[in-house]
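Work package 3, deliverable 3.1, input record:
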Amino acid sequence: MFKVNENYLKLPGSYLFSTIGKKVAAYQAAHPDTEIIRLGIGDVTQPLAPAIIESLHRAVEEMGQAETFRGYAPDLGYAFLREAIARNDYQDRGAEIGADEIFISDGAKSDSGNIQEIFSTDNRIAVCDPVYPVYVDSNVMAGRTGVYDPARETWSDVIYMPCTAENGFSPEFPAETPDLIYLCFPNNPTGSVITRERLQEWVDYANKIGAVIIYDAAYEAYISEENVPHTIYECGGARTCAIELKSFSKNAGFTGVRLSYTVIPKELKCGDTALHSLWARRHGTKYNGAPYIIQRAGEAVYSPEGKAQLKEQVAYYMKNARVICQGLKEAGYTVSGGVNAPYIWLKTPGSMTSWEFFDYLLEKAHVVGTPGSGFGPSGEGYFRLTAFGSYENTVAALERIKRL
Ligand SMILES: Cc1ncc(COP(=O)(O)O)c(C=O)c1O
C-alpha cells in the first residue's frame, strides 16, 4: 500500500491567497453589483512592454522556420540571456558574477521553493517574520520544520526573526544559530529595505557561522534610494555565503510569461562540494529549461528600448504606491514601505486584527488587501496593499478608504 509524504499533512490550512480568493468570491456572489477593487495579490496589471512583445514575435517566427527552430534549451539557460544578466545586473554594478554562475528558470517561486532540496534535512532555517510563505512551506514539505504550534502559528524547528516597527522591519541576528537564512529585500510583505552596511553585516555573520543566505531580490527594480543594495554581491564575501534569486515577474510583468534566474557563485562550498554543482545536477535532472521564446523575451528586458520602457512601467506602479501612502496617511493610518517597493504595510486601526480589517475593508470599501497575519505572527495587526493595480483603481480605492 502506498503512503503519502506525511509532511504535506502538517501544512496548516490553505494557502493564504486561496483563502482570500474564497472570501472575495463569496462576498461578490452575495453582492453581485458591487465593484470590488483588488489591491491584494502581488500580480501586475500593465501589459508587456513593446520591446518584449517584438522580441516574442521574432522568436515565434524563428520557431516556424527549419533553419532557426530550437528544441530543448540548454539545461542552465541560453548564453545570450545569461550573458545579458551577468553584464547588466552584476558586472555593470561592480558585482563579480559570471554568466556561468547564473541558472535560468521559470520563476522565483519555484526556485525559492526548490533550492532547499540541495541542503541536508537537518539544517535549521531562519526566516523573517512576516515572510513570503513559500520559504517556510517548502521546508515543511521537506520535513525540516518540526512540529506546528497552531496557537502561535509557528514551527518548532524554524528560527523566526521578527520584523517589527521597532527594528524598522529589518531582522536582528537570531539568538539561535541557523544554517540557511532566507532574506528578501526589498521585502514582501513589508516593503522595507536593508542598507548596504547592514547587508554587509549579514554576509559577515553568515560567513562566520558557516550559513548560507538565500537572498530573494524579486523587487530589486523598485529600489529608488541610494544606500540600498541592488544585489547581495555588492557586499564583500557574499560569493562564499550567498545564493541570489531574481524574478522577471515584477520588473518586466512576466507573472504570466514565467522567467527567473538563480545565482550560485562557484566559491560557495560545503567542504569540497560546490553548491553550484549540486544545483546544476538538480536542474539537469528535473528541469528541461525555460522556453526559447521566453528567454528571448527576457533578453529584450536588457535592450536599451526594453530598459527605458520598463523604467516607465516601474514608475507607473510607484506612482500608485505614492497615492496609497499619501491617501492612507491623510486618513490617519500608520504606513511604511512603498518607497523602494510596490508594497505598502499599514497598521490596522484601533485593536483590529489583520483579518478583521480585511473583512471591514471588503465590506465597507469593497477593497481587497492582504492580512499581515497571513505572512506570520509578527504580521498580526498589519495589512498589505499593493501598488500593482491600475492607477484609476488605485485612486478610486483610496478615495473609498478615505471616506470610511
Ligand atoms: C518575494 C517573492 N519571491 C518570489 C516571488 C515569485 O516570483 P515568480 O513570479 O518569479 O515565481 C514573489 C511573488 O510574489 C515574491 O513576492
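The longest strand covers residues 242-247.
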